[in-house]
Write a structure and sequence with these properties.
It is a single chain. The protein is mainly alpha-helical. The protein contains 20 helices and five strands. Strand 4 and strand 5 (about 140-145) form a beta hairpin. Helix 6 runs antiparallel to helix 7. The chain is globular. The two termini are about 35 Å apart. About 55% of the residues are buried.
Length: about 475
C-alpha cells in the first residue's frame, strides 16, 4: 500500500479488487475458519497439529517474541481480500510450515479493526496481504513480503528470514545482497533495495536457487519505485528464463501492470501484447505450481491487458477459460470458506463474459453460509447493478452496511450511492456519500483509505 498514483503491478496475488499496486492498498470474505482458533501466548504445538496464531494482539505477541528471543511473524490481512483468505485457507494452515512453528511467534492482524490502526501505521502496511518478519528487540522488519506464495515457497522464505536474524548478512555474496534487499524494501528504501537485488543477481550463478525470488523482488520494487520502463524491460528479459512457479506469475503480473501505466508511444507500452501472451500461456499451463488464487489473478491481469489493447474477442475467450477454472476450483474446495475464496474473481470473470447473472447463486450461497460477513451481499449489490436490478442492489448493499466494520464501510456507502444514482435518486446518493464522509472522521484512515475519502468528497462536490 502510496501517496502517488501507483501501477497495477504487484507481487504474489495482492488483492486486485480496486487495482492495488504491489505496495499499494486500494480498499475492495469472511474470516476463514480453517485457521485454528487463537490461543494467546501459545506458539508451539505437537508436530501433527497446525500452527496456532495469536489474533489481533501485537503487544502480547511482541512480548512473547522478546521473551523467547524469536522473530515475530505477522500476517496483515483483511476480510475483503480474497488473496488473504486464500493464504489463510490454503497456505498458513499447511503442514509444510509446521517444522518452523518453534522458530517464530505467529500473529495475525485484521487491518480493518480500529484497534489495530496503530500497528498498521507502525508496520507501514500498504498491500494486502503483507507477511512480515520482525526482529523483536528493535521492532525493525527484516522482511515485508506483499502477496501470496505456496506453503513450500513461504517455508523457504521464512528459513531465509530466520537465518538473517541469526547470521546478519552472512551466506555468500548473492544471499547477503538478497537479504539486504529484503531489509531495505521492508524499511521503505526502494532504491537501496533495487541496488541490492541487482547485486544479488549479478553475484549469483545461473542455477542459484534464490534467483527466481530475486527477480520477483526486483521487478516488484521497480514497479513500486515507478521505474515502469525498467520494470517492463526486466520482466520481458527474465520471464522466459524463469522456472514455473509463483515468482514467474508475479513477474508477469508486475510487468503487465507497468506496461499498462506507460504512456502511449513508450517502448514498453508497445510490449503489452507480448506480456499478455506470456501471461496467458502461464495462466493456462496447469503444471504451474502456483496457488489457484494466483493463477486466477494472472488471468485477471491478462484480460485487463487485452481489454487495454481493444482485443475484445481475446477477452471473451480467456474469460470463459477463467470462469471454467474458477468453477472447477470452487467445486473442489473442502469447506465453504475455501470455496468462498473464489467468489470475488468469479464475479469479475462472469462480468468479463457479459454474464453477471451467473454470480447470483454462488453469492446467495455464501450469504447463507456466512451470515455475519458483509462481502457476499456487497458483491451481490455490484452484480445486481450490472444486471440493472437496482432495487435488489440497494437492498443488498444495505445488508452489507449493517454487517461491515472499519473504513471498508466507505466503499460500501459509495456502492449505495451508485445504486441510488442508477435509480435516479440523486439526493439519496449524496446522502450516502455524506454518511461516508461523516464516518471517515470517526476512524483511522490507514493505507489507501484517505485517498478513498478524498475521492468520495470530490464526487459529492461535483456539479449536478
Amino acid at each position: 500500500m502510496t501517496t502517488k498514483a501507483a501501477p497495477k503491478a504487484r507481487r504474489g496475488g495482492v488483492c486486485r479488487a480496486a487495482h492495488a499496486a504491489w505496495w499499494c492498498l486500494s480498499i475492495s470474505g469472511c474470516v476463514a475458519p480453517t485457521l485454528p482458533a487463537p490461543r494467546a501466548g501459545v506458539v508451539g504445538a505437537p508436530e501433527d497439529k497446525p500452527i496456532r496464531f495469536i489474533e489481533d494482539d501485537y503487544a502480547g505477541a511482541l512480548a512473547i517474541a522478546r521473551a523467547r528471543r524469536l522473530p515475530l511473524f505477522v500476517d496483515a490481512w483483511a476480510p475483503w481480500c480474497h488473496t488473504c483468505l486464500s493464504m489463510r485457507s490454503y497456505v498458513l494452515s499447511d503442514a509444510a510450515l509446521r517444522p518452523l512453528r518453534e522458530q517464530f511467534v505467529w500473529l495475525a492482524i485484521d487491518t480493518e479493526r480500529e484497534g489495530n490502526a496503530g500497528v498498521v501505521s507502525k508496520l507501514g502496511v500498504r498491500a494486502l496481504p503483507t507477511l512480515y518478519v520482525i526482529e523483536p528487540t528493535n521492532e525493525k522488519p527484516i522482511l515485508a513480503w506483499p502477496g501470496s506464495l505456496t506453503a513450500n515457497e513461504l517455508a523457504v522464505l521464512l528459513e531465509d528470514s530466520a537465518a538473517s536474524v541469526r547470521q546478519g548478512d552472512e551466506g555468500g555474496a548473492a544471499s547477503s545482497a538478497l537479504l539486504r534487499g529484503y531489509r531495505a524494501s521492508a524499511g521503505g528504501m526502494a532504491k537501496e533495495a533495487i541496488a541490492a537485488y541487482r547485486q544479488a543477481l549479478a553475484a549469483a550463478p545461473p542455477d542459484w536457487p534464490r534467483r527466481p525470488q530475486s527477480v520477483d523482488a526486483l521487478v516488484a520494487q521497480l514497479a513500486d519505485d515507478r521505474q515502469l520502463g525498467a520494470c517492463v524491460e526486466t520482466g520481458l528479459e527474465e520471464a522466459p528464463k524463469m522456472p514455473a512457479g509463483t515468482a514467474l506469475a508475479d513477474v508477469l503480473r508486475a510487468a503487465i501492470g507497468c506496461a499498462e501505466e506507460l504512456p502511449a508511444g513508450a517502448p514498453g507500452r508497445g510490449r503489452l501484447g507480448d506480456l499478455a501472451a506470456l501471461g496467458h500461456h502461464a495462466a493456462s499451463d496447469r503444471t504451474q505450481p502456483i496457488l489457484a488464487d494466483d493463477r486466477s489473478d494472472l488471468y485477471d491481469f491478462v484480460i485487463g491487458a487485452y481489454r487495454e489493447l481493444g482485443q475484445d474477442d481475446e477477452v471473451k475467450g480467456i474469460a470463459a477459460e477463467w470462469a471454467a477454472f474458477l468453477e472447477e476450483q470452487a467445486g473442489r474446495a473442502q469447506s465453504p470458506a475455501a470455496r468462498a475464496v473464489f467468489d470475488a474473481h468469479r464475479v469479475l470473470a462472469y462480468k468479463a463474459l457479459g454474464e453477471p447473472q451467473r454470480s447470483v447463486p454462488m453469492l446467495e450461497e455464501s450469504e447463507r453460509d456466512f451470515p455475519a460477513d458483509y462481502n457476499p451481499p456487497a458483491r451481490l449489490a455490484s452484480t445486481y447493478l450490472a444486471m440493472k436490478r437496482n432495487d435488489e442492489a440497494l437492498a443488498a448493499v444495505k445488508r452489507a452496511l449493517e454487517k461491515a466494520y472499519g473504513p471498508r464501510k466507505l466503499r460500501l456507502w459509495s456502492l449505495e450511492a451508485d445504486a441510488y444514482e442508477a435509480m435516479g435518486n440523486g439526493p439519496a446518493a449524496r446522502e450516502a456519500l455524506r454518511a461516508a464522509l461523516d464516518f471517515a472522521k470517526t476512524v483511522s484512515l490507514t493505507a489507501g483509505y484517505a485517498k478513498l475519502r478524498d475521492s468520495i468528497e470530490k464526487r459529492l462536490n461535483e456539479p449536478r
